[in-house]
Amino acid sequence: MKIRQQMRRSRATTFFIHTIGWLVFLGFPLLFMNRTQQSSHITFWVLLSPFYWLFCLTYIFIFYLNSLYLVPQLVFKRRYIRYGLIIILLSGVVYFLQPFDNLLGHNLLKNSSLTSPGIPARDSSLLLAGTDSTQKNLPFGPLPHQDLRMEDPSLKPSNRIIFIHQSGNIDLVALFILIIVVGLSIAVSTVQKWQVTEQLVVKTQAEKAHAELSFLKAQINPHFLFNTLNNIYALSVTNSENTSESIMKLSNIMRYVTDEVTEDVVLLQSEIDCIKDYIDLQKLRLGKRTKLNFIISGEIINQKIAPLVLMTFIENVFKYGISKSKSTEITIQLLVDEERLNFFCQNTIVEKKSSIKRKGIGIDNTRQRLEHLYPGKHQLEIKHGDDLFTVNLTIDF
Asked: Which end of the chain is more exposed for a tag (fewer CB within 10 A), N or C?
């Protein structure tokens, strides 16, 4: 769910940025024309001009063609020669269309027709073209500010506004804008690829963590049930009268393990009930040489915890802290408040050859689970010395 929300936010942010960027781009020609011309109605005429939309749509098309197709399909796949040829082709299209020069020329024509009411609109091109009819009335030829090239009909025909391409003219501004648009589209496509890659990494890590947790739970459950069945088996061999009660306790534990442990978190009260049933099973086989201290304090309401995260340490206490020939002491303490759980357990170490040769997977798995489920929200301290094995665990809900 978190990954999907991040993707939706990223898409909304991208849409907002693109919208604002294109609004600024569409408004730039209007601002430029208003600042360079004197007519207050020039914005209206620019919006009605087909050359305005030719200018805008040309670069919008090139931007998305490059960012959505050319860069992902060619640049990212290292097909640089093909990409370069397509960019040269797009430059040729811009050279032919001359979007900026046509927009500027059409705007000058409209502005001259608006500011010179005495000149008919069909003859207003003469103000731009500088034809022979306007220059013959000048005794000394064209004025210094006039371009002599405009006298050549092959270079600047009087009706050049009608044609899209003007031969012999290179629209440098349009080509410069093309370079900027291509560069921005490459940057946008690169950033999008980086964002997608980052999201995939986060998703992969989350799936990996979930798979690891499922694997750890699959390891813990058989390990826990195996030890409990061994305890009941020992009671049945000795014909203990508490065998039936032990089976009932085991039934409660198995119901908890099969029904609730599949969830990522469970109610703390359910976890404590399972611990109580397990300790009751262990009490049935404890001898007089083992002293058990089990303390629960605090207010347990609706706090939640990862299932079986405490059970591993409790199993370890009974597995390595009971002896028939040596006096031992086991202490299990739970202190609960609304925001934190403090767990403490301690047992006398009884050396066993089997325990020295074989190390259980329970504690190592629990460490990994705590790192995955409570990163930065737990403290685990394990001490092994002076014939005592001590565990201090603090979990913030």
From this structure: N
